[in-house]
Amino acid sequence: MSYDLLNGIRIIELAEVWAGPTACSFMGDLGADVIKIESFPRNSPTRPLFSSDWRVSPAGTGPPYERAWAHLQANRNKRNIALDLKTTEGVDIFNRLTQTADIIIESFSAGTIDKLGIGWEEIKKINDQASLISIPGWGVEGIYKGYVSFGTGFDCVTGHAIMRGHPGRKEEEILGSTHSDATVAQALVFAVVSAMQARNKNKQGIYIDFSQVQQLTTQLVSLYSEWALNKRELPRMGNDNEFVVPHSSFPVAGEYQWVVIVAQNDNQWNGLCRALKKEEWAQFGHKWATISGRLADREKVHEAIANITKSMNSNELCSLLQSEGVIASSVAEPAELLASEQLGFRQWFQSLDNQFLGTRIYPGLSWSINNVENLPNKPYGTLGEDNYSLLSELGFTQKEIKNFEKKLVIGNKYEVKG
Amino acid sequence: MQEIFRDYKIAEIGGGVALAAAGKQFSDFGSNVLKIENIDGGEIRRAPPFFEDTPSLNSGGMHIFLNTGKQSVVIDYSNPSGMEIVSKIVNDVDLVIIEEKPDVALQIIEQLKTTNPSTSTLAISPHGLKGPYANRQESDLSIFAQSTRLARQRPSMDKNSLAPVGYAPYTTAMQVGLTAGAIASAILWKNNSNPFAYHAEVSGVEALASNVDTPFVAWALTDGVMNYAPASGRAAYPTGVYECSDGHVQFTGADSPFFERCCIAIDRPEWAEDERFLDLDQKPDHREEFLAHIIPWLKARTKLEVFKIMQEAKVLCTPVFTVEEAINDPQATARKSFTTFHQDGIGEVISPAYPFKEYMSDEEWNLTSAPKFGEHTQKVLEQLGYSTIEQQALFRIGTIK
User: Fold this and answer.
1) Distance (Å, rounded) from C-alpha B71 to C-alpha B20?
2) For B326, which of A19, A159, A331 is closest by C-beta distance?
3) Domain residue extents for chain B
4) Of A58, A134, A141, A206, which is least packed with CB atoms within 10 Å of its CB?
5) Is B394 exposed, middle or buried (0-12, 13-18, 19+ CB in 10 A)?
6) Bridge-based pairing state of the strands B120-125 and B199-203
7) With a threshold of 0.90, does the pTM exceed it?
8) Which residues of chain B does A364 touch, with a Cβ-Cβ cutoff of 8 Å?
9) CB-based contacts of A115: which residues, under 8 Å, 6+ apart?
10) Exposure pattern of A145-174 as b/e (b: 16+ CB <10 Å)?
11) Quick one: which H or E segment has residue A268?
């Protein structure tokens, strides 16, 4: 599925792992012509070379790097060229692509693109209408120039990681979070449109210095506003909420099964008490009938609810609570997402073809537009699949392209190790 | 660069956090963003934290951070008199973003299609405006849970008594708002060359489940085998959080070439070529040997010392900061990652600056105060031509504030 909102914008993607590629995938979903330049002959981190790698689907018969979910989930609706940018010819090809580009997105560590000889100074000489968006972790400018990290690290330097987790547990138990990958990806769509708007105004491309760390801080408003207004850090509270009781996940029948239950006000609390056949908890005079009483007895309230829910079926409990207007949800695993009546009603999931894995089910789009038709997806681009067609488009002859292939400037295979 | 969206006028209808987050992207970049707020103010004005812990519709942190530079008009749009004002406001806006109960949102959209047929709309809701779950009550945590993202945060396989644990308050709403801002910007871009009234939606569950940081694709492509990244697997070292002399650092250093670089950085260069550590089949058996060296090595150094050593070695390693440390980080200072603005009734407020800027630009990120509840109601009604008699009549029946 895709839409045509960004139709006519050509984006060159020089990005690996998740944030940049996911952003470009979103923009492919919105109709942009995304050309992914894959690292060659070095494989990108999300394209494993071992079939036993945990990121590789056991299904299919092709090379492991074509069956890696870590790659596939961030790379739909793109064309694909695998290019060695450390060669003179590779740089020449990149420069030809630059001549046709509206946007170039790169996620190298800060300064690397300049060392490759394809940085902003070169880009603007070749095509002054192209914009460059660089997204190193800490941004391009600053004293951490060249520093490297993934999303799990960005979560740690923003103050988010240290407040996540169950109260009283050690920092060593903090789980990794790739929240920044998800949010940077959406923020980059906005950045690309901003660059296009700037070009409309200024009649030339611009260079955007985008910091993934800073992007994540903008998402953590509860933490930063607490500090700004009251000079306090948010406490580590698990799934509890300082101002709402009950607000947590509760055990239900089955192995490691949980249900989120939230009653934000007295009406929802009344509904919860009716559903659990504990109407007396909501009667005037009972300590828990009021918000003050529930806040004071947080642990006791949660324990009493858990004692009832632990023997109940998750779906039955959620249905019962929802029918009483209470916020209730199972802690859904992927199979539950797939079975969601709501997502089925909205025909949200999509089937995508992949040469090596066949037709599989993937998540749908982040948005829907009710009054325009969905357009079909491009097929999944395999490594270097569009080498010939793209280079022909750029004016290279078949002989030149074959020569690039022979000299390993381009390719469509990595050396598999197992 | 802060003026890039100056030519656009956006109307927000409702009181959600995601709505305010979506609109902030445009107010930050110069758009005229008008908040059409309902009489109760909505969650954005009622959500803690509050300045000096004193709740009011004008002193909440979510409101102050997410409504900078906007105007506030308070209207009861559940009645025809209120809806008439809304349709007049919408006459000259480029995009209406709505976060309301689905039945209310649908009613507003249908009305706008009649009165303002050239205006695009974008509706934010937990599940979409129609369907069997559309009218369910939800919260940040419950949407997070339904998207499969909470299940991914299972403490570890051997701690079955501990539930999966979510993110900071309102991170779900913020991501939904960001997703809405993205499609909103794309609609405005398309409308530059091809004016058309789009009617778009962002569902919270879909926004989260369609993005990375979810296990769905891994599950679907491994036929249900792989639900979780084996971050705690015995071969995955150094990965996770480790103690230093004054706090903690985080590593994502199990894979090549980061593992080899890490071995060199911790004075064990021979391990960078040792098959016991490089062969994934053998690596789990030598976990304790590695940890026995790196743990005291880390405890002998501060987190910033470790950070510097590891980054010079190009190892994926970061310190674990508090918010205060993040604000005072020298990199944040060098980049002006945080900015201050004056908030009426409160004073100077420090807030994250926008995450991107033009390279080498000296432009300061200028934010202006978030509006008081209904601060611009009278002005906007005057601009729309409402007489003083009409305004008093509307105020008398509680349609405006």
Assistant:
1) 12
2) A159
3) 9-211+339-396, 239-243+248-319
4) A58
5) buried
6) parallel
7) yes
8) 206, 210
9) none
10) eebbbbbbbbbbbbbbbbbbbbeeeebebb
11) helix A266-275
Q: Which of B211, B15, B48 is nearest to B124 (CA)?
A: B15
How large is the C-alpha radius of gyration of chain B?
A: 26
Distance CA A351, CA B195 (A): 31
Count how many pairs of residues, chain A against chain B, have C-beta atoms within 8 Å. 488
Report pLDDT for B158. 57
Cβ atoms within 10 A of the Cβ of A53, count? 18
Amino acid letter, residue A156: C
Closest partner residue to A234 among B168, B247, B329, by Cβ? Answer: B168
Give SS3 for A16: coil
Helices (H), B120-200: 140-146, 171-193
Whether residue B168 and residue A164 make contact (CB cut-off 8 A), yes or no, is: yes
Q: Quick check: B4 contacting A, CB < 8 Å?
A: yes
- Alpha-carbon span A363 to A350, nearest angstrom: 6
Residue type, A4: D
Res. A374: pLDDT tops 90 = no
Q: How many CB atoms lie within 10 A of CB B64?
A: 27
Alpha-carbon distance of B166 to B171, in angstroms, equals 9
* CATH class (in words) of the domain with range B9-211+339-396: alpha beta
The class level of CATH for B239-243+248-319 reads: alpha beta
| pLDDT confidence bin for B229, thresholds 50/70/90 | low
Q: What angle do CA B371, B377, B381 make, to 5 degrees?
A: 145
B48 — contact with chain A (CB < 8 Å)?
A: yes
Phi and psi at residue A199, in whole multiples of 5°?
A: -65, -40
Nearest to B126 by CA among B146, B108, B107, B156: B146
Q: Which of B318, B227, B235 is nearest to B282 (CA)?
A: B235
Chain-centroid distance, C-alpha A240: 25
* Cis-peptide, bond into residue A379, ω within 30° of zero: no
Q: How far is CA B189 from CA A10, A29, A200, B194, in A?
A: 14, 15, 10, 9
At A280 the pLDDT is: 98
- What's the first-to-final CA gap in chain B, in angstroms? 35
Contact A182/B241, CB-based, under 8 Å? no
Query: Structure tokens of A159?
Result: 């103050």
List domains and CATH numbers for chain A. Answer: 10-219+364-406 (3.40.50.10540), 247-331 (3.30.1540.10)
Could you report the per-residue pLDDT of B270-328, keeping only the tens digit for each?
A: 999 999 999 888 999 999 999 999 999 999 999 999 999 999 999 999 999 999 999 99
Concatenate the DSSP letters of all residues of B257-278 into one string.
Answer: THHHHHHHHTT-GGGGG-HHHH
What span, in angstroms and rounded, lies between the C-alpha atoms of B8 and B294? Answer: 55
All residues of chain A having their beta carbon less than 8 Å from the beta carbon of residue B347 are none
Q: Give the containing element (helix H, strand E) for A91.
A: helix A88-100
CA–CA dist A268, A321 (Å, integer): 9
Select the residue of B52, B151, B174 nearest A331 (Cβ to Cβ).
B151
